[in-house]
Amino acid sequence: MTATRGFGIDIGGSGIKGALVDLEQGQLIGDRHRIDTPQPSTPDAVADVVAEIVRTAGWDGPVGVTLPSVVKKGVAHTAANIDHKWIGTDADSLFAQRLGVDVDNVAMLNDADAAGMAEIRFGDADARTGVTALLTFGTGIGSAVFHDGKLVPNTELGHLEVDGHDAEKRAAASVKDNEGLSYPQWAKRVHRYLSVLENLIWPDLFIVGGGVSKKAEKWVPLLDIRTPVVVASLQNNAGIVGAAAAAAEGIEH
């Protein structure tokens, strides 16, 4: 029997969000619960917050969890915008222990990969053919690349060097806020980043997501690049939806 509901947790550099998800519609059920990411964002401190969110929701089934990290077989191998103690952490085991569930009931994914999986499944139909790149603009820049709807996991294209800088250090949404950039000023940086990226992987479609996608009308029309750009249909909830689906179906990379 296919699960019709799931629970997803999306861990970011500034906030940890969780919600119950309708897996047939790709929509949140009820309210999304958000708690600021603890500082320092060590594995134990983050696990405490995740456990609180799950407990508050009263959920006792499989849980999908995203990390801003390369995740292979449940182990974190990088730490972008979270504490470096995550590197080498068996996140599967950590969350299973903290949630009091079997390790098979936890699915760990890179945050952008989870968001991309949700968009491929529930978003623009054009994303399911050819090469599609989803980019999440938040504290950093996450990326997920798909070919004919199949994920190439753990791409780290937000860390491309562009004009001598790590791309996310210049074009993440957090940089816009921290430097007080207007949308047109920031859009120039996003344009430069996307133009470099499109010349490397020649995608058929870019999907842009993250919290800043809620204000897409202020910057997406300013992107004058070769590749079509669409806004993530699930906006900033895509990671939660993708994580919940992965947990329900036992998907992990």
Written overview of the protein:
It holds the Pfam family ROK. Belongs to the ROK (NagC/XylR) family. This is ROK family protein. It comes from Amycolatopsis ultiminotia. With 253 residues, the chain is an alpha/beta fold. The chain contains 7 helices and 14 strands. The protein has helices spanning 43-57, 91-99, 111-122, 167-171, 173-178, 183-201, 238-249, and strands spanning 5-11, 15-22, 27-36, 63-67, 71-72, 75-76, 106-110, 131-137, 141-147, 150-152, 161-162, 165-166, 205-209, 229-231. The strands form 4 sheets. A 5-stranded mixed β-sheet has the order 3-2-1-4-7. Strands 10-9-8-13-14 form a 5-stranded mixed β-sheet. The longest helix has 19 residues, at 183-201. The protein is globular, with a radius of gyration of 17 Å. The protein starts with a strand and ends with a helix. The model has no long low-confidence stretch (mean pLDDT 95).
